[in-house]
Amino acid sequence: MVRGEIDRAVRLACAAVALSCSATAWAQDGTVDRRRLDALTAQFDAATADADPAGYRALANETLAEAKRLYPADHPEVALGELHVGMALAFAGEMDAALAIVDRVIPRLEADPAYRGSWRNALGARAYILNFKGEHDAALALNERLIADYEALPNGRNERDYATTLSNLAASYLEHGRLDDALARNRQAIDLALTLDPVPADVAIWNANRTVYLYSAGRTEEAIATAQDAIARVGTAIGADHPMMANLYANLGAILLRVSRPHDAMPMIRRAYELTERANGGPNQNSAAMRVQFAQALIRAGRDADAIAFLDAATPIIDAQLGAQSDRALVARDTRLIALLNTGHGAEAEPLAQALLGIRDARLPEGHRDRANARDNLAKAAFVNADWTTAERAAAEAVALRGRMLPPEHPDLLVARAMLLRVQDRADSRPAADLVTEARALFGALTLNANLARGSAQAERQRPAYRWLAELFARRGAVEDAFEAQQWAARSSLDDALAIVESERAATAELDFAATVARRRQLLVARQGLEAKLDANLTRPDAAFDLAGLTRELDDNRQAIADLDAGLPAAQRARLVFTPSTLAQFAGATSPRSASVMFTDLGPSWLATMATDAGTRQYLIPDGARLAGLVARLRAAIDGSAASDFDPAAAAALYAGLFPRDADVMLKDTERLAVIANGSLGALPFGMLMPEGKRGAYLIDRMAISRLVRAPRGERAETGTGAIDTLVALGGVEGRRTGERMAMRSSGGARAIVDLPDLPDAERELGALAEALGTGSNHLLIGDHATEASLRAAAVPPGSVLAFATHGLLPGEFDGLDEPALLLNPAGEDDGLLTPSEIGALSLPARLVILSACNSAGAAGVDRPQLSGLVQGFFLAGATEVMASHWPVRDDVARRLSVSTVRGMRDGETSAEALRAAILTVRKGNDGEARIDSPVLWAPFELFSG
């Protein structure tokens, strides 16, 4: 996706930095009937430019006309009316005209002490305009002058206007790379605003700005947490449904989208445009821009046709209100272009890309990021059409432009170079040896960047390049390189989160490592400030910008981090940098009669690397679209929840596509299969595939299957063996009673939970688990006792089984749920929703966690390539393996599978073998209950290993 379009979405609230321009004093000569002027001014103060730009400008003109009717031309009231017009022009982007007006009125307002507040607001407007024009030093000086003026008269100032100016000063500091100063002044503004009565609604924008400041500095997780906290606090202060809350939701959604969490982003973005449209009485260009952002999330989630439908509705609104060549209109067309490419409409996409490039070249200055972005998009469109000449020319131009704008190791330049190599590989326009040599050097630079700051926005931007290089290496026979790149391509934000938490935990126990981590963090903060300056120049290029000097500072910073890392012992360094497995290590983890296979989504193709005791094999699966279609057919049957809907032809065709003849032969004598798969394959149990194409003959019949979250290193011990002597189990939560208790927290959530069906087999299942374990160390927390507090208090020793028999809830299932959760009973300060972040903070070193809950591994997709947030949370808490379901599962089937699995483990089977035996038992009815043979019912459970 185009780099610029999401950055603009994240900056949405920053573009609306508030300017309070109401007058603070009025002439009281008793000779003028100014009631209409007062009413017009009040309307103007209450209006917002985004909601109706034309109406906002018309109201400003009407206010000025009324002031001129009442007062002489040199009266401060006329100057104030002109200031309103200048503001309207500024919000419409006519900055030069606006600045001329503001400069004209400032002396007239300053001359009358009664209009001191209006004079301050005029200076604030001037600072806003100067910032927009890139004259940041002058804007900063004005804002600092204003703050000094306010603070000189602490008892006589308008506190709301003072808070607004603090927020504006924060924005100026950010433009100068002074992040700490920006955050400090922004915090002052927010804290002051929350003490006022009424609390100004602008505090929502200031909190939204704060999330942008943190995100821009690379502090992504902190930005997300800040936005989530602000939604709760500010929603309480100004009302959860206040239109200004849309800024917070939109920014949080944009950041979640930027870090490849589209499923989490969609509920936030939807909330943003719904609030905006409710306040406006229907769609406007602001809500339409949010709908474009929603379309971007749909694309990331693989729902390109839905994205196009959203864009068809949103783009005409933006065109009508802002023009077809406005920034927002162009972003909408960029988004449509990506959806067209993903759906194979290259013939329509390439001319659109050409047109967008022409517009941007005509409108934007040399050095602007979007000129290079437009060439990226043209290269991608031409690539889809096999128009290699156009694709190579556009990609080469993008590299050349970025080479003049960026340091050599900048992620955007590296990704552009990877795209050029991809085109040259397909076009055969360079010798294969040259391609591989350059690709290796490029890959080294990419991985060095990613290991500097895992989970950062910059590391996230590089992800497409790993896929392209993995494909190039595989096509050119560089198998080792392809396997290494494949592992990087499969990594997700969840993997980075796991690694970051692991290093933070280690730092609490190892003082020397803690000191290194702290120093490294300081260096990264400094680096993020330098990168923020560079990014700012890409959107507003300055001919005087010292790129060479900034590059030297970045190089020095990089070397300082590298020196720190090099001084660490190998075990500690491994906590800070990701080192993929070698092909030899991958093969070495394979025991006799077992196989490991890694499937990685490379975009239009998939790369498979397989290891058995007979050797290794790597192959490209070029027809990724066909695989996606087969997965969709199987998921359609599953989502229909009817046994008769299962599509055996799709299950057979998918197996044949994933395991072509040579690979199938390698699996013939396999008894145990470990799968690592991302993308759409992350949400589909492999046991339901049909290797022989015969009804009733599934892959699970041939072998035990488990999931790995990463490629193993060397010999891998079989998990799930040894004695288990403790069960901790929670369940039997009734939706009706729980919903009633939650009503005080969330009426919408409570209503949804009240409607959840009861799980009558839950208590029976947990009792049967205790019986199957056959020990006296059982802690059953049923019904009212199934609370978060009781889980925190429970002892979960290593080697134990931790089981949940309750509902699993997915993000967006009801208002306010932005993480997956297990439903428990609310009690005290606990809300009854056990989320991944709460799980990860616990110590739960269970040998096996059983999530006998609907959707506990659900919503796997682009943002959850390998495992869900719930499963991730338990790995963070120390669990060895997790058994979870991919879709809603019948509670009687869940009981039979979980009980039979534990019984098998008690008898000495590995957990994977025990789960396989449990599935076969349920299918045959060997446990004395009904025979259930449809994969829709028995297949959802899979075993995950860390």
Describe the structure concisely for a colleague.
By secondary structure, the protein is of the alpha/beta class. The chain has an 11-stranded mixed beta sheet with strand order 3-2-1-4-5-14-13-12-8-6-7, sandwiched between helices.
Walk me through this protein's architecture.
- The structure is a single chain.
- With 946 residues, the protein is α/β, with parallel strands linked by helices.
- Among the domains are: 129 residues, Serine Threonine Protein Phosphatase 5, Tetratricopeptide repeat (Alpha Horseshoe), CATH 1.25.40; 166 residues, no CATH class; 114 residues, no CATH class; 219 residues, Rossmann fold (3-Layer(aba) Sandwich).
- It is 60% helix and 7% strand.
- The protein has 42 helices and 14 strands.
- β1 and β2 form a beta hairpin.
What are the SSEs and their pairings?
Blueprint: H1 3-10, H2 35-46, H3 53-70, H4 76-91, H5 95-110, H6 116-132, H7 136-152, H8 159-175, H9 179-193, H10 202-216, H11 220-238, H12 245-258, H13 262-280, H14 285-300, H15 304-322, H16 327-342, H17 346-363, H18 369-384, H19 388-405, H20 411-427, H21 432-452, H22 457-461, H23 463-475, H24 479-490, H25 493-509, H26 511-539, H27 547-566, H28 570-576, H29 583-588, E1 594-601, E2 606-612, E3 615-621, H30 624-640, H31 648-658, H32 661-666, E4 672-677, H33 699-702, E5 704-708, E6 727-731, H34 735-742, H35 747-754, H36 762-773, E7 778-782, H37 788-793, E8 801-805, E9 808-809, E10 821-823, E11 833-834, H38 836-840, E12 848-851, H39 869-876, E13 881-885, H40 891-906, H41 911-924, H42 935-938, E14 941-945
Parallel strand pairs: 1-4, 4-5, 5-14, 6-7, 6-8, 8-12, 12-13
Antiparallel strand pairs: 1-2, 2-3, 9-10, 10-11, 13-14
